């Protein structure tokens, strides 16, 4: 298993640049609720790569006691501060999705927001899936979402900086995100150099963060093979968060695999 560095983005910056993302929250809250039907099984839910709580906190607020795991101590510190400020409590712990040990088995274990793609080799991907399967109770579900590569978008990873988005800053003004991605189609990796600039209300740059991260994308047949090798005999995939729609190129693919 390859060594890993601290997470690529400071937690306060992370919360700002992803403050506009929320279309997946109702979906994951519903999945967490569905894991606690009051029937057989523990009903326990674990979110891997929980970060600063973008999904974990809404689940808690909906009455689902979700546990969290993340390999960034600073992200977890920010999450704990948020929980305290909201009067919430959750079992959140430091750990690597490729090799973690929890005292419980789960009805639902999920990896959202493309976090699975931080696995940069097939060995790491397989280790994550196997470790997840070991932590599922019988008939428990592993769910994860990853983007399906869009050929046009991959062609833009040519090293040229492009403004990705501009979002409001909670302290006033805005934050501008500029990405320069470099694709490696042989290794299926995207290396991104990201500049985050805080702009005051007059549009002047008052703060700059130079960041970088790398993802390894996964095609549908590849994921099917990985799940099979990890020991899953039953799994399915859907396109997006709106129901059992057939996946399309460029979709967010939502995978569900059951431990039988």
What does this structure look like?
This protein has helices spanning 11-17, 25-34, 56-61, 73-86, 122-134, 151-155, 220-229, and strands at residues 45-48, 67-70, 92-94, 106-111, 136-147, 162-168, 174-184, 189-199, 205-216, 234-239, 252-258. The protein has 260 residues and is of the alpha/beta class. The chain folds into 2 domains: 11-149 and 217-258, Rossmann fold (3-Layer(aba) Sandwich); 151-216, N-terminal domain of TfIIb (Single Sheet), CATH 2.20.25.110. The radius of gyration is 18 Å and the shape is globular.
Write out the strand line-up for the largest beta sheet, numbering strands in chain order.
3-2-1-4-5-11-10
Distance between the termini: 27 Å
The low-confidence parts are: none
The major beta sheet can be summarized as: 7 strands, mixed
User: Which assembly state applies to the chains in this document?
Assistant: single chain
For CATH, the homologous superfamily of the largest domain is named as Vaccinia Virus protein VP39
Which descriptor suits the 3D outline? globular
The CATH topology of the largest domain is what?
Rossmann fold
What's the helical proportion of residues?
25-40%
Topology record:
Blueprint: H1 11-17, H2 25-34, E1 45-48, H3 56-61, E2 67-70, H4 73-86, E3 92-94, E4 106-111, H5 122-134, E5 136-147, H6 151-155, E6 162-168, E7 174-184, E8 189-199, E9 205-216, H7 220-229, E10 234-239, E11 252-258
Parallel strand pairs: 1-2, 1-4, 2-3, 4-5
Antiparallel strand pairs: 5-11, 6-7, 7-8, 8-9, 10-11
């Amino acid at each position: 298993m390859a060594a890993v560095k601290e997470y690529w983005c400071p937690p306060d910056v992370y919360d700002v640049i992803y403050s506009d993302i929320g279309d997946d929250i109702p979906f994951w809250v519903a999945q967490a609720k569905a894991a606690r039907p009051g029937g057989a099984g523990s009903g326990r839910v674990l979110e891997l790569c929980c970060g600063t709580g973008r999904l974990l906190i809404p689940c808690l607020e909906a009455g689902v006691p979700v546990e969290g795991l993340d390999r960034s101590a600073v992200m977890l510190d920010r999450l704990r501060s948020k929980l305290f400020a909201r009067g919430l409590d959750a079992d959140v712990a430091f750990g690597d999705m490729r090799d973690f040990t929890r005292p419980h088995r789960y009805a639902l274990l999920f990896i959202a927001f493309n976090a699975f793609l931080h696995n940069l080799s097939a060995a790491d991907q397989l280790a994550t899936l196997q470790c997840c399967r070991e932590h599922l109770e019988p008939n428990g579900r592993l769910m994860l979402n990853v983007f399906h590569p869009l050929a046009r978008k991959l062609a833009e990873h040519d090293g040229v900086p492009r403004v990705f988005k501009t979002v409001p800053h909670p302290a006033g003004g805005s934050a501008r995100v500029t990405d320069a991605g470099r694709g490696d189609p042989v290794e299926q990796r995207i290396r991104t150099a990201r500049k985050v600039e805080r702009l005051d209300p007059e549009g002047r740059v008052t703060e700059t963060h130079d960041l970088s991260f790398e993802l390894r994308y996964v095609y549908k047949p590849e994921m099917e093979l990985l799940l099979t090798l990890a020991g899953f005999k039953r799994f399915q995939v859907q396109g997006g968060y709106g129901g059992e729609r057939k996946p399309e190129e460029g979709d967010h693919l939502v995978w569900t695999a059951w431990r039988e």
